[in-house]
Amino acid sequence: MAPFSVRVGVRSYELDMNGHVNHAVYHQFGEHARSSHLAAAGCSFGRMVELGLGIVLLETRVRFLRELRQGDEVEIDSRVGFGAGRAFTIDSTVRRDDGVVAAEISCVMGVLDQGTRRLVHAPADRLREIATAPEVLGL
């Protein structure tokens, strides 16, 4: 299955004093791709809150590879990986329309039980139970 992806256009207010996308905006691009990916699987913000759960970001890293400038259109993919334990990963690639990779984003995530304020065990199992389209998450 091809990775989930979203498209965004670079807006003028996302630029820094050098005329390229501010570093913090890349984190927002990644968040947009991750939340859209989860929503497409049926694990939207509203549904998670309704169930007393939330998705938390435990660690994030961005590798800046090429500039993005105002007017660039980019595709941001989202790839979920599950292993043992309470955490899982969501990685993204930010790619310009000309195919050039502008950034790579790596995140470690968890599913938070809002009542206990603890990460749930086996997040893949929990998300599979919640999702209306678990295959979108590779489950």
UniProtKB/TrEMBL annotation:
InterPro entries: 4-hydroxybenzoyl-CoA_TE, HotDog_dom_sf. CDD domains: 4HBT. GO terms for molecular function: fatty acyl-CoA hydrolase activity. This is Acyl-CoA thioesterase. It comes from Pseudonocardia broussonetiae.
